[in-house]
Design a protein that fits this description.
Blueprint (H helix, E strand, L loop, with lengths): L2 H4 L6 E6 L4 E6 L2 H22 L8 H77 L6 H23 L2 E3 L12 E8 L8 E6 L2 E3 L2 E4 L1 E7 L4
Parallel strand pairs: 4-8
Antiparallel strand pairs: 1-2, 3-6, 5-8, 6-7
Helix pairs in contact: 3-4
């Protein structure tokens, strides 16, 4: 075996080839295999970096064009989604306004029809109330049968007022209240020792509201200041 073969690095793997003429030992250096493996590893790392981060390696023409087209399509879809959401919000707002307007108009129509009917019934209610007030002053002089009849009329009057209340028609407070020209109509004024000036002392005809609107003002008697 030659001296050159003995000076090979210690990390070499000897390989023997034997023929008929002479026996020789040839050593293959592993450094070349290690270099090829390292180069392969670096190539694999570059490929992985290119796949995970587009900025790691410049993309080719087709890949870049495809990426630009994808981003453009994404922006277009985002813009279309935003426009659809805005349109939906406007539609919902329009529908809510329409619903509120419809409910308001329905309520106004209901109150108008009820008010027209109530105005026709109010004179009947007034006359019934006056008849009851007149009969109550003579109730003690009447027979037992008549008192039962009068009690039945009072129940009818009460039921009629309950019907008015169920329709949103409520009476206006008058006696003992300060005179309010918005809901009271002064028919008579006279001095009073019991009430302060400008106070309703008697209700001649009851007034009513329907909801928050005036249906009919109360006709009242109002106290006045005494002349000293």
């Amino acid at each position: 075996m030659s001296s050159d073969n003995k000076q090979r690095p210690s990390n070499s793997i000897p390989i023997r080839f034997v023929d008929s003429d002479e026996e020789g030992v040839f050593e293959e250096d592993e450094m070349s295999d290690t270099a090829e493996a390292n180069e392969y590893d670096r190539s694999s790392e570059r490929d992985f970096a290119a796949e995970s981060d587009p900025r790691a390696e410049p993309l080719g023409g087709p890949e870049l064009a495809e990426l630009i087209a994808t981003r453009s399509e994404l922006k277009r879809l985002q813009s279309a989604l935003s426009e659809a959401q805005d349109a939906l919000a406007r539609r919902q707002a329009d529908f809510e306004n329409y619903r509120k307007r419809l409910e308001r108009e329905r309520g106004e129509t209901h109150n108008r029809i009820v008010a027209e009917l109530a105005r026709k019934l109010l004179p009947v209610v007034d006359n019934l109330g006056r008849a009851l007030d007149a009969e109550r002053t003579m109730e003690a002089q009447e027979s037992k049968e008549f008192r039962h009849f009068l009690h039945g009329i009072e129940l009818i009057n009460k039921q009629l007022n309950e019907v008015f209340e169920s329709l949103g028609i409520t009476p206006i407070a008058s006696v003992g209240e300060p005179f309010d020209p918005h809901v009271h109509e002064a028919v008579v004024t006279e001095p009073s020792d019991e009430y302060e000036p400008d106070t309703v002392t008697e209700e001649i005809a009851r007034g009513y509201r329907i909801g928050d609107k005036l249906l009919r003002p109360s006709m009242v008697k109002v106290s006045a200041r005494r002349n000293e």
